[in-house]
Amino acid sequence: MLNELKGCTQCKEKKHLSKFGKFKSKITNKYYYKSRCKECDLNRLKELSKRRKTVYSDGEPLNWGAVYRNIRRSAPKRGLKVEFSKKEFLEWKDKQSDQCHYCKCSLIKSLGNVKFFFKKGSIANSKRFQIDRKDSAKNYTLKNICYACSICNSHKVDFYTEDEFLEVAKKYIIPILNKL
Q1: Burial (Cβ within 10 Å: 0-12, 13-18, ≥19) of residue 110
Q2: Contact partners, residue 58, CB within 8 Å, separation at least 6
Q3: Are strands 60-61 and 56-57 parallel, antiparallel or unpaired?
Q4: What is the mean pLDDT of residues 163-171?
Q5: pTM of the model
Q6: Residue 150 in contact with residue 110, Cβ under 8 Å?
Q7: In a 3-state reduction of DSSP, which class is residue 15?
Q8: What is the DSSP letter of 129?
Q9: What domains, with CATH codes, occur in the chain?
């Protein structure tokens, strides 16, 4: 077991098993090694994320239609309206850059930093950017929403306006992220 090698389907190199991620089969309840090494898997996810502007987790695309549906469901419970259609939301998403509106971190960098801010399994430990309302007192409109990493979105809550939190992020969050 100590000297076992496995071939990566992406780079075609034989590497030690520790260089491959594991997953648990829902059918057999056993652990198996992934077909691509961790390095190739990360590079593949980065490339897919750039090309499609879609967040990927374990090779499966995030269902942005479900994100829109969750916004539509939760808004009325908070007395808010959603003033755009699913189609408009998906078009808006495709035009966004791969960075948090507040701290300017890319998704990959943000995911690496999350472990320093939250416990494993925390609701804020998200595998995608969250949709934040810039002005929490206003409804969901395309001009009032932005991408926010889980770090910024959980710290902003509904206390700060966009301008106030940009200052908070600049003064406190970005210096901490730069140290990491």
Answers
A1: buried
A2: 23
A3: antiparallel
A4: 92
A5: 0.62
A6: yes
A7: strand
A8: P
A9: 5-38 (no CATH), 53-179 (3.30.40.220)
